[in-house]
């Protein structure tokens, strides 16, 4: 997907030989969250990046409540990252996880590249066809129809968007390939 209004991004990497990528998404809520994170970080390494997984963020026990400590730790990881790769699959409904959307917006505000991935290239309207068959949800609210896979504000703010199922981390792999291109890193050998 090509953005109509590409955002402004930082052009340099903190360490060109060791770029970092924050792995945003609802993966942290899965029953196998830690194993998923290890597999995702291993894929980052295979693609020439250091993966920064939220559950591995050091939590400061002096910050209370614990939810605030987790927020600060994850925000610090995004600050440290050269880019964000975000799993924007539907979560607990018909839209991406709200925490992940915040992480995407924060990274964009910080001038970082954000590559998102979805399991399918279906438009928002196509994905919601059963829920909103006439383009209206059960409450009579319009489901936007701009031919985009996400709400237009999110879709047009992303650096790029990849597609691939979660099984085998195909979406993440596709996103990491795109991120390499955006950083001008050559193809994997």
Order of helices and strands: EHEHEHEHHEH
Which class of secondary structure composition applies to the elements?
alpha/beta
Query: What is the first-to-last residue Cα distance?
Result: 26 Å
The parts where pLDDT drops under 50 for at least 5 residues are 1-5
| Shape label | globular
- Describe the largest sheet: 5 strands, parallel
Spatial arrangement of strands, main beta sheet: 2-1-3-4-5
Strand residue content: 5-15%
The level 1 CATH classification is: Alpha Beta
* Rg (C-alpha, Å): 17 Å
The figure for the number of domains is 1
Helical content (DSSP H or I, runs of 4+): 25-40%
User: What is the mean pLDDT?
Assistant: 92
* CATH architecture title: 3-Layer(aba) Sandwich
Give the number of DSSP strands.
5
The CATH topology turns out to be Rossmann fold
Number of helices: 6
Describe the structure.
By secondary structure, this protein is an alpha/beta fold. It has one domain: 3-Layer(aba) Sandwich (Rossmann fold), CATH 3.40.50. Helices cover 33% and strands 12% of the residues. It has helices at residues 33-46, 66-80, 98-109, 124-127, 152-155, 170-182, and strands at residues 20-24, 50-52, 83-87, 113-118, 160-163. The protein has a five-stranded parallel sheet with strand order 2-1-3-4-5, sandwiched between helices.
């Amino acid at each position: 997907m090509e953005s109509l209004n590409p955002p402004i991004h930082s052009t340099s990497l903190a360490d060109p030989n060791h770029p970092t990528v924050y792995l945003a998404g609802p993966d942290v809520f899965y029953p196998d969250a830690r194993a998923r994170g290890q597999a995702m970080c291993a894929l980052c390494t295979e693609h020439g990046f250091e993966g920064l997984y939220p559950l591995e963020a050091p939590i400061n026990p002096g910050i209370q409540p614990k939810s605030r400590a987790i927020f600060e730790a994850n925000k610090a990881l995004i600050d440290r990252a050269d880019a964000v790769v975000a799993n924007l699959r539907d979560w607990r409904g018909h839209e991406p996880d709200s925490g992940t959307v915040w992480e995407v917006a924060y990274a964009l505000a910080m001038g970082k590249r954000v590559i998102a991935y979805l399991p399918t290239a279906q438009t928002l309207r196509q994905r919601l066809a059963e829920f909103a068959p006439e383009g209206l949800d059960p409450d009579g609210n319009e489901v936007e129809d701009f031919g985009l896979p996400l709400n237009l504000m999110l879709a047009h703010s992303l650096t790029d968007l990849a597609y691939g199922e979660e099984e085998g981390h195909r979406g993440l792999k596709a996103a990491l390939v795109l991120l390499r291109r955006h950083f001008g890193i050559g193809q994997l050998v």
